[in-house]
Amino acid sequence: MNIHNVSRRKFIVTSATAAGGMMLGFNLPAQAAQMNANPWELPTDKEGQEVNAWLAIDPDGTVTIRVGQSEMGEGVFTSMPMIVAEELHVDWKMVKAAYASGNRYLRQKAEDYQVAAGILNEDHQVYRRMGTGGSGAVRRSRTFLQQAGASARERLKEAAAQAWGVARADVTAKDSVLSSGNRTGTFAEFATAASTVALDVEPVIKTPDQFNLLGASVARLDTPLKVNGSATYGIDIRLPGMVYAAVRANPVPYGGIDSYDADAIMGLPGVIQVVEIVPGEGQDLRSGLQPAVAVIANSYTRALSALDQMPIKWSATPNDGVNSRDLFADANAALGMPGAISVDEGDTAGAIAGATTVVEGDYQAPYQSHACMEPFNCTVHITDNRADVYGSFQNPPGALAVVAEQLGMDPINVFSHTTFLGGGFGRRSRNDEPRQAAEIARQVGRPVKMVWTREEDMMQNKMRPMAVARFKAGLGPDGMPVGWHARVAGHSITAHIRPERIENGLDNSLLAAVRNHPYNIPNQLVDMHVRNSHIPVHYWRSVNASQNVFMAEQFVDEMAQAGGHDPLDFRLKMVEDLEDWSLVLNTLKEKSGWTTDLPPGTGMGIGISEEFGTVVGQVATVTVSRRGQLTIDKIVAAVDCGHLVNPAIAEGQIESAIVYGLSACLAGEVTISGGQVVENNFDTFKVLRINEMPIIETHWALTGGDKWGGLGEPGLPPVAAAVANAIFYATGKRPREMPIVHTDLSWG
Amino acid sequence: MAMIDSTRRSFVTRIGGGAGAMALLTVVPHPASAETIDLPERESAILEAAFGSSVLTPGKISLDMPILAETGLSVPVTFKVDSPMTEADHVTRIMGFAPGNPEPVLADYQIGPRAGLAEVSTRIRLARTGFVYAAAKLSDGTLWGTKFSIIVTLGACVEDIFDLDWQRDAERRAMRAEARAAAAAE
């Protein structure tokens, strides 16, 4: 069979050209802020004059601004340069963005100006942080990015002042032009001089009331590349002389290999080699390397076909009998026992015992897959004293570190090249794929591109943990709560990633939104049990809040109903001393047209939570047919993240969090049977389809001040609770289990 | 399995000597001098208790470990002391500290001349980016030390990602406890 080797990306480019202006009839402005399709490369062929590690100025005035975070759709290639540009007073049209170098992050400590400004200390790395996670891009980088722009601007002004014999205070910088009196010059003219200027005092960064660029919905730099198909993702990497690896591990995660018959496939077309991956001493599941076998061939199709035909016998493991039913039974049994105590305020048991009304509720949520649209892949090229690793990394220096360790090389000789990410959601911060690819490349001795099939991607995923929770509350004569007891049992990510943070069986991160809810209740007891299985777990967008808010916020509704209160007013009353929560709730009330008085089969529900410093509330409107067919009609969100860098991108973050959260809320789940993941492709692992997408409205309820909350994750947790609560008002049935598809919603 | 390149030390020496900006990567044992290794307060107290003094002279002992670790879960480290290990001149004790860890003592080895070699390799756990310290006591009673700067990337990624929310929770609870106490007092 003759197969044309046409990549998906090339296909898009080609078809766009063929269809001429019809298919892609947009014209870019002649000059717009830009970036390269290969974002790890310099956007121009010139190095440019670096003023500091964050920015370089070309002779033609182009300013390259480096980006420390990874672009996985959250818009960092636009929002992060905007923060630098705000202070630099550069003409935004002259800005180009490129990734900061992971290798340089490793080599270089903080620059003098960063230390002098008191923004970093001398032990920090020059780019401070290059991981992307914790909804931290803006909130944790803003000050040092502003400082990079401000300090560079003042150096440019000082260079001009010295050349013109005037005081720096008499020089202004605006749109890449320096001027004083009738003299003007460009940033490019003074870039070289500015790079050597020493300032006595570093400038103070702007406060939000002084912003000009920040707060504007500037167009995303990556949109043209993604629309015309030229954006390079990890899976698009091609290197000269590259071969392909198809890899498979025991379907029971971290199980071993009994035997495989390489001879059976070595004669197949294009097959080059069979590689076995054997974890070394001390390489347990935390290292990310597990026993696996890979077929190397001159095309991926041939490698995969040969792998499918190769007889492999997997070892029996102690986990071959593990299934979800037993895991949930075990976790639910734990709910009957006192656990490690996180909060114990007042006399909770006494308050509930003496309460007018007692409310109880149990909930559960399964393992959940990240289901990144781009399957896992990584390309590694090893030469004599250097290794290059290409891929979709959320933590590039970490990718560099694991490759260095696996190859026994100095990290300083390893270079990571981060592409665009076809979805990350936390999964791509685990760095198991660069380690595996490095081990394969080490054995093969030529550049290797390793690609996981969708099935491998989902069966060897590092899941969002499963959890169960039991709530019990006592209400006083006024229907308001006097005691809150919450108990959670679930799989602990911390036990895998940061075990030193677990003390006496207490992992507070399992208690997100269960412990750190804002409701003013006089007696509170929160305790928990860690219940781990062999299924590897990792961070998933919004982490434990993704399931806990579904549970806790439904229980808050249960309390409101038992106490005879409107659920929105009930919450307002419990947070009346908190400005931000009150503002978000009042905004929701106004914008959603809040009511619990809708005809049978329709309902409105609310969910609200605070994560990474941002409060997000959502009201869902749903319709449920008598036979139980659910339609989500509308989601109205109100958000307080303090300030906005780019409102259009921020709105996109809330919308994408709702899409991702709705998939998990409605149908997406991972079940375990025979120790293996059952849902190994999109036929069984359901994600939201476009026809199921509700209308979304996002309203900003910003309290400003010192608040700079994150936005990548906080939009997700409330949606499942809002939908579940709306379903209750529509049907009288409460979905206590994620995904909601397990609950029969028929009524009447 | 892949082990850490034994030439790392000479390499680090090279870059450390080569560029001013990279000086903080320099971890070679310093020649003995009047200078001492600055230890944080908690680690000083531990050393004081173990050795009767917390004054460490730079030199003799070296730390061989990667300058970068993806996670701090299992970081290879070798403590090595320049000593003939004879009856007359040997190492009696080696200790390692990571001030960034909740429990800072990483290693505590008591050895003697019959060990033959004053070198110990192990794997340690590190909570975050920062310095690792090593201290050695010799049979003549002298104390020697060194420190090593290591970057832990996962620390940079997930470090305190939840701390902001926990801090707000603590503030809210304190505020309300105060309000309740005030209401009770009325």
List keywords for this structure.
heterodimer; A: 748 residues; alpha+beta; Aldehyde Oxidoreductase, domain 4; 7-stranded mixed β-sheet; 5-stranded mixed β-sheet; 19 helices; 28 strands; 28% helix; 22% strand; globular; B: 186 residues; Immunoglobulin-like; 6-stranded mixed β-sheet; 3-stranded antiparallel β-sheet; 4 helices; 27% helix; 28% strand; elongated; disordered N terminus
Give the SSE layout.
The complex is a heterodimer of chains A (748) and B (186).
Chain A lengths: L7 H11 L15 E2 L13 E4 L2 E3 L5 E5 L8 H13 L6 E5 L2 H6 L4 H5 L20 H28 L7 E3 L2 E4 L2 E4 H8 L28 H5 L15 E7 L7 E4 L10 E7 L14 E6 L2 H10 L2 E3 L9 H11 L5 E6 L2 H6 L3 E9 L11 E7 L2 E6 L4 H12 L6 E5 L13 H13 L3 E4 L2 H6 L7 E9 L5 E10 L3 H4 L25 E8 L14 H18 L4 H8 L4 H14 L9 E10 L2 E11 L5 E11 L6 H20 L5 E2 L2 E2 L17 E6 L16 H15 L17
Parallel strand pairs in A: 1-5, 4-5, 9-19, 17-18, 21-22, 25-28
Antiparallel strand pairs in A: 2-3, 3-4, 6-7, 7-8, 9-12, 10-13, 11-12, 14-22, 15-20, 16-17, 16-19, 20-21, 23-24, 24-25, 26-27
Helix pairs in contact in A: 2-5, 5-6, 11-12, 15-19, 18-19
Chain B lengths: L7 H11 L22 H11 L5 E2 L2 E4 L3 E2 L5 E7 L9 E7 L7 E6 L8 E6 L5 E9 L4 E10 H6 L4 H23 L1
Parallel strand pairs in B: 1-9, 3-9
Antiparallel strand pairs in B: 2-4, 4-7, 5-6, 5-8, 8-9
Write a short abstract of this structure.
Chain A has 748 residues and is α+β, with helices and mostly antiparallel strands.
